[in-house]
Structure formats: C-alpha cells, structure tokens
C-alpha cells in the first residue's frame, strides 16, 4: 500500500495504520523532500515512475495529506496511474447506522458521525470532529480536529473547516471555503470565501 504524502499528517495516519496492522509492504510518496525513510522504518519513493511500478504490484493508496486541493491532486494523479483509493477509519469512532459515504472518507480517532449524514469521496474527518444529524459534506473537504458541524449543515467541495470551529444548524457553506480555527459560523458562506471569528465574518 502507498501513502500519498510523507509530512505531518502522515505521522498521525501511520499510527492508525499500525494499530490496524496495515503496514505490510507500506511505502510513502514524497516528491519534495529528499529523505528516503519515513519514521526510521518505511521507504519513501519520489517519482511518478516509481509510483506506477508500485501500483503494478499493489494498486491501493491512501491520501496522506490534509490539504483538500493536494488530496484531490494526488487522487487524480494516482488513479490515472492505476491506483485505487482506500479510506482509513480510526479507533473510537461513533457511527450512526444511518450515515452514508463514510466508507469513502478518512475518519480519524474519536470522531462522531451522526444519523442521515452524507460524507463525500476523499474527505478527511480529523481527530475528535463531530458530524451531527443530516449534515452533508462535499468531496475532498477537510474537517479539522475538534470541529463541530451541527444538524442539517451543508458544506461544499474542497472546503477546510478549522480546528474547534463550530457550524450552527442549517448553515450552508459553499465550495472552496476556509473556516478559521475556533470560529463560530452563524450564517451562510458563499463559494471561495474565508471566514474567521465569533461570530464568523468574511475576510476575503
């Protein structure tokens, strides 16, 4: 299995993989940094040719970065090379029996996924985040640690919801929106905006 990325996010991802016993033939990919070994144990490859050769033996890959745009870029590149995306689900996650799409997203430790939620392909729900009833999240959106999305919130594609941010019920967040850490979003946010503060306000 190949992890796309060998930076900070990959450290926490590796702990989940170790706890699940999924480290056999584990390889990391990083085309920026020159290191050849990750965490003193796992090989790092650096070129597209190496990735393609790896996929001929094992087509599965995991997104090892948190940034929504980079996650999507890796997904596009690696699927074109013959890779097949798989997701990670950590320990202590509370799943509703009526949630959908979580199997296509990375769900880290100690998260809550409520009833009638829909989580898009390639999303990252990071440690301790809460996704409450009837929330819908678009593809490749990142929900950072401790963020809370309350009932019937709608979040678009390629968004980043900051650590410990709270999105109040029925708020609609457009595509490619950034919500600052600790913000409380009380009103709808259009596409492409950045909001911060309590209550959150648009800054760009």
From TrEMBL:
CDD domains: LbH_AT_putative. Gene3D superfamilies: 3.40.50.20, Hexapeptide repeat proteins. Belongs to the transferase hexapeptide repeat family. InterPro entries: AcTrfase_PglD-like (IPR020019), Hexapep (IPR001451), Hexapep_transf_CS (IPR018357), PglD_N (IPR041561), Trans_hexapeptide_repeat (IPR050179), Trimer_LpxA-like_sf (IPR011004). NCBIfam families: NeuD_NnaD. It comes from the Bacteria. Pfam families: Hexapep, PglD_N. The lineage of its organism: Bacteria, Pseudomonadati, Bacteroidota, Cytophagia, Cytophagales. Residues 2-78 form the PglD N-terminal domain. Keywords: Acyltransferase, Repeat, Transferase. This is Acetyltransferase.
């Amino acid at each position: 299995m190949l992890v796309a990325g060998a930076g900070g996010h990959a450290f926490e991802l590796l702990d989940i993989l170790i706890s699940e016993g999924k480290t056999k033939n584990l390889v990391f990919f990083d085309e920026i940094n020159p290191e050849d070994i990750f965490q003193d144990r796992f090989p790092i490859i650096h070129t597209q040719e190496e990735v393609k050769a790896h996929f001929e033996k094992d087509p599965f890959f995991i997104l090892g970065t948190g940034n929504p745009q980079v996650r999507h870029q890796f997904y596009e590149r690696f699927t074109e090379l013959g890779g097949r995306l798989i997701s990670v689900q950590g320990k202590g996650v509370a799943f509703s029996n009526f949630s959908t799409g979580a199997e296509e997203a990375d769900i880290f430790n100690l998260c809550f996924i409520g009833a009638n939620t829909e989580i898009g392909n390639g999303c990252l729900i990071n440690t301790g985040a809460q996704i409450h009833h009837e929330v819908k999240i678009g593809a490749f959106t990142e929900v950072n640690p401790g963020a809370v999305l309350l009932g019937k919130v709608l979040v678009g594609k390629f968004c980043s919801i900051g650590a410990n941010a709270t999105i109040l019920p029925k708020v609609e967040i457009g595509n490619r929106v950034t919500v600052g850490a600790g913000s409380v979003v009380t009103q709808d946010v259009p596409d492409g905006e950045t909001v911060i503060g309590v209550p959150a306000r648009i800054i760009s």
